[in-house]
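Sample entry (315 residues):
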Amino acid sequence: MSGRALAEARTVLAEIVRLSGRTAEAAEVARSALAAEPGAAEYADISARRTLARALGDLGRHSEAAESLASLAARTPRTGGTAATHLQDRVNALVHLAYLGRHEEVTREAAAVRIDAASADGEARELVPLSALTSLAFSLSVQGCFQEAEALLRPAVAQTDPRGREQFVRTLQLGLGRALVGQGRAEEAWQIVGGPASAAPDEPLVAAAANAAPQDASATALIRATTLLALDRPIDAELEARRCIELCESHLGEFHHRRLEADTALGTALARQGEHDEAVELLTADLHSWHAHFGDEHHGTKAARLALTSATTYA
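Predicted structure, serialized as tokens:
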């Protein structure tokens, strides 16, 4: 087998391994694809690097993923047959920038991507701007700009045809749920992400995402957990947070933004049930992870610190 053929085969294998949840192994296989033939054709090299970027993102190495995707976008022409791929790399980098709290970059790049997508062909013309909007709304919400996030997401949810795009629309809905919870409108959020606020929880609680991929299901479980906390249903919130953590453990790294958010939600749910010792232990570790991987002024670090302070105060 030639070096080029070996590189291409390893790239395919890396993506298969990543989708099975073995993210660290996927990253190593992708690196071995890059090493198989340093002088491989441009498209083969780019494909391997794109798979590596996805694996790094899954592992929670958001800075490396964002930088890798930006580098790939810079190597891919903005026009012609590769325009959609170029735009997709840029929009995929946005979510990592938002996770990192690099909000000015998110705002600037989201606007630029939406402008450039206007000249794209096919579905990219519609879906790329919506993906950029989703990341921008997330960035706004974690900054506390919940009304602005809702103003972006509500018309997008209403105007997007869900046929064949059910999970895509679900992502928009989850973002809207986050924005509503931030405004104290948890019952309205639950109508979107869970069902009537008075209803008993589903078994399992993420039944709405039962047929979704683990990453999509974990995103649903996280927003349901935070919504249930806002509805003062800590027992149900604990179940959702644990479900999110279980799903994250199968496909994401332990320091992925979503996993750490779930730990914060779980610690909060435990504290509200009077399980203060367990809550303080979990939230202390959670705060350390946020601080170590995202910095002291990051939105996740601040939220974990507040949750730990609350759990300690009322212990």
